[in-house]
Amino acid sequence: ECMALDAPSIRQARQEDALVIAAAERAIASVPGRLASRPGEIDDDAVRRMILDLNEHGRGIYLVAEHVGTVIGHALLEALALTTTAHVVRLTIAVHEGHQGRGVGRALMSELLRWARSTPHIEKVELQVRSPNHRAIALYRSLGFVEEGRKTRRLKIGPNEYLDDIYMALWVGQ
Asked: How many CB atoms within 10 Å of residue 140?
């Protein structure tokens, strides 16, 4: 099989992508522990505002992966707000249900990292990942991310059922 034909195209998110992105996040969040948010906590307008904030107001970058005209993943880098942390961006990525394991995450990650490395004031990319998400952790490690810490029992997904959050980062500065 030829992976090149299957490769998603990556582009900047537009405000009209917000509904699809929010719906995809609600689907992912319906499985406890996949996202920190619960489905009811994901708001279409908040997604739209984030796209506007990052892509049009320059606080970072928000990308989508498309395959045959359908958005199948999204990812963003959001600059931290304070002057002393403005060199750091927080990474969020989601590959939509049914599209995992096909290189969508890697394609989004490589475009985000290309942007981060070519943006002079960005020096560090940080992310949080759930401890059971071995596929994502392996992807991040393969791209050079290192574990910086772990917050134990950070997410409560059921009675006496918790997940750890692993903090990983990649230095992209000179």
From this structure: 24
Burial of 62 (0-12, 13-18, 19+ CB in 10 A): buried
CB 90 within 8 A of CB 77: yes
Question: Per-residue pLDDT for the chain (174 aa), expressed as one digit of tens each?
Answer: 344 446 789 999 999 999 999 999 998 888 776 777 778 888 899 999 999 999 988 789 999 999 988 999 999 999 999 999 999 999 999 999 889 889 999 999 999 999 999 999 999 999 999 999 999 999 999 999 999 999 999 988 889 999 999 999 999 997
Number of residues in the chain: 174
Give the Cα-Cα-Cα angle 26, 139, 149 (nearest 5 degrees).
Answer: 85
Ramachandran angles phi, psi of 36, nearest 5°: -70, -35
pTM, whole model, 2 decimals?
0.89
Q: Count of CB atoms within 10 A of residue 121's CB?
A: 9
Contacts of 127 (CB under 8 A, 6+ apart): 90, 91, 92, 93, 140, 145, 167, 168, 169
